[in-house]
Specification:
By secondary structure, the chain is an alpha+beta fold. The chain is built from 10 helices and 33 strands. The chain folds into 3 domains: 311 residues, tricorn interacting facor f3 domain (Immunoglobulin-like, Sandwich); 110 residues, no CATH class; 106 residues, Immunoglobulin-like, CATH 2.60.40. Helix content is 24%, strand content 30%. The site of zinc ion has 4 residues, from helix 5. Zinc ion binds next to helix 5.
């Protein structure tokens, strides 16, 4: 073998192994024609789906989600709600009993597949609840596309859980998770989880959706309306075009989205305004006394998009719609369904900020929500608190924007029902445990990282994360890769402790000895999650002096933090329970000393964190 050949061979295998781990994502292109029977809450649908397999794997089957099949007596969703009793989803039960069990036949949700073809040839399929498995006639080779066509009909469920009809706010149809949707395929295989009430996941897709419905209806959707001049509500000069059944056809498009969702009502009002250097915002809701805060919310929504664009990364779509759907808030691409009625401006804006924030954490950074719900809900909650703190500054000043969430976490931990955040979203034993693991643990994950690496570094991490992963499917590993690179720290330990376990942080001051020219403090790690320790004193002349005790596992320390300048002390090895800190101040110079004056550390026991010197 000559040397040149050896080099070529090495390069070739080098390339192969590099390709083996390369990131890829699947793509879908939907065209759907929908004919709605508004009187009977049903519709007929035709779908053409061009599916592109960018994976290195040959696919012999594909899976679709048929979410509305969950809204039937005896469905997995019904079984789950029944077996969870009072720990389950309150919106699907009355007095702890599943309301799905008593849905009359004609009001059950359904997605009935008439036929599906691949490149014109009929395919075999089997349906188990909300998941359809389709056997392909010809496998989809790597880097190739295939065309599926399908005809189906559907019944909009009476049961309101995100999708449904005639909800309590009086919206006729909330049409979400409403079409047979191809499942995501990635390095982890097909994401074929059953719909029992929580999260969704899908490949990025382009949409062309034509909805034919009674001309008196107004539609709100996450997408671009291509013919506002032919339908009701969007254009004052519209000339409503109808067919012989008195139906108008709404033509919607959207690009690079996980989903297309819409709602229809005869009494919707449509309002719009433009965020300077941002998207066009649509409000689609029933105007009444109960929805009076929508008008007032507009400048806050504008500010929200501007802050997100500046701090995280640009919103990439042309518009965003806030649609009164009537069942809580649920985020979709380019829009959200939300409760319209609100008892305060703060409450309404809070919901808008949360659901709008999912445009980044769920839609643009499209995590697999069923596997890592803490990234999607947690990161969104982080920005909620961060932005609401600016939009509605608290009356009594808080040490940081996250103190309320940290306090709730502390209170929850004491209940003893916590489950790890890394657990599958739908499989938590207890609904409250799910909420805390996902929303609070996920949010505090970022708050703790800010404490460990400094807020300026965390801001850079978020921007870099957006730059690398916008319109892709990142995992926690991808996030940590960037966090470690920017902070120059080893942070893997923190992900494992915080996300995969229910271990807690608990540091305390064990003893303080005052000498003539200095003071010695014995700090104690009584918890099960090791952390670096920020320690501060308030001097008698009202100055704050900060010290940081880096954790040996990070192999470095923060160099800046908006919460102050820190004098760096010797490492604290994670195996060591006590640490002696000596500071060049005597008793007469100190009025208080304690751990983490910024109050970001999620220490579960604050009683021994502060000493006031009398
Ligand atoms: Zn959310």
């Amino acid at each position: 073998m000559n040397k040149g050949f050896l080099i070529i061979l090495t390069l070739f295998f080098g390339l192969l192994s590099a390709q083996k781990n390369a990131y890829y994502q699947q793509h879908a292109q939907y065209k759907m024609d929908i004919d709605v029977d508004a009187k009977n809450f049903t519709y007929n649908g035709n779908q053409t789906l061009i599916y592109t397999n960018n994976s290195p794997d040959e696919l012999n089957v594909v899976y679709y989600h048929l979410y509305w099949n969950a809204f039937k007596p005896g469905s997995m969703m019904d079984q789950r709600v029944a077996s969870q009793g009072k720990n389950g989803d309150s919106r699907l039960q009355k007095n702890g009993i599943s309301t799905l069990a008593s849905i009359p036949k004609e009001e059950e949700g359904a997605q009935n597949i008439h036929w599906i073809k691949q490149n014109g040839k009929t395919l075999q399929f089997e349906i188990q609840g909300t998941v359809m498995k389709v056997y392909l006639n010809s496998p989809i080779k790597p880097n190739s596309s295939t065309t599926f066509t399908m005809e189906w009909d559907a019944v909009i469920p009476m049961q309101i859980r995100r999708a449904g009809r005639n909800n309590r706010e009086g919206i006729d149809m909330t049409v979400t998770q409403w079409y047979p949707k191809i499942a995501e395929y990635d390095y982890d295989g097909w994401a074929t989880f059953d719909y029992i009430g929580r999260e969704f996941h899908a490949p990025f897709a382009d949409f062309e959706v034509n909805i034919k419905i009674d001309k008196n209806y107004v539609i709100g959707a996450g997408g671009t309306l291509e013919n506002p001049n032919e339908v009701k509500g969007y254009d004052a000069k519209a000339n409503i075009k109808t067919n012989k059944d008195n139906k108008a056809t709404w033509r919607w498009t959207a690009k690079n989205m996980l989903d297309f969702a819409w709602a229809a009502d005869r009494d919707y009002t449509v309002e719009s305004f433009v965020v300077l250097d941002g998207p066009k915002i649509y409000y689609v809701y029933q105007k009444s006394e109960k929805t009076k805060y929508w008008e007032e919310s507009k400048p806050y929504v504008t500010k929200f998009f501007q802050i997100m664009n500046a701090t995280y990364g640009r919103y990439v779509y042309p518009s965003y719609s806030f649609i009164q759907g009537g069942d809580g808030g649920m985020e979709y691409g380019m829009g959200t369904m939300m409760l319209g009625e609100a008892t305060s401006l703060n409450g309404l804006v809070g919901l808008m900020v949360h659901e709008g924030g999912h445009s980044w954490n769920q839609q643009m950074m499209a995590y697999n929500e069923s596997v890592r719900p803490w990234m999607d809900e947690g990161f969104t909650s982080y920005y909620d608190d961060y932005i609401m703190h600016q939009l509605f500054p608290p009356k009594t000043p808080q040490a940081n924007p996250f103190t309320v969430s940290i306090d709730r976490y502390r209170t929850f931990v004491k209940k003893g029902i916590e489950e790890p955040a890394g657990w599958l979203g739908d499989h938590h034993d207890n609904g409250t445990a799910y909420s805390f693991a996902t929303y609070y643990k996920g949010e505090l994950f970022l708050v703790q990282l800010g404490y460990i690496m400094g807020e300026q570094n965390l801001a850079l991490v978020m921007k870099e994360f957006y730059n690398e992963w916008n319109l892709k499917h990142p995992t926690d590993r991808d996030f940590m890769h960037i966090a470690q690179k920017i902070a120059g720290m080893d942070l893997k330990w923190f992900l494992h402790y915080w996300i995969n376990t229910t271990k807690t942080i608990d540091y305390g001051i064990k003893d303080v000895k005052y000498e003539e020219n200095y003071t010695t403090i014995i700090l104690e790690n009584k918890g099960t999650v090791p952390m670096p320790v920020d320690f501060s004193i308030l001097t008698t002349d009202k100055k704050v002096v900060n010290f940081q005790i880096p954790l040996n596992m990070t192999h470095t320390w923060k160099t800046k933090d908006i919460y102050g300048d820190f004098k760096t002390e010797a490492y604290w090895p994670w195996t060591q329970k006590e640490y002696t800190l000596t500071i060049p101040y005597n008793k007469s110079q100190i009025s208080a000393l304690g751990i983490d004056f910024s109050q970001r550390l999620a220490d579960v026991n604050l009683e021994d964190n502060l000493v006031e010197v009398k």
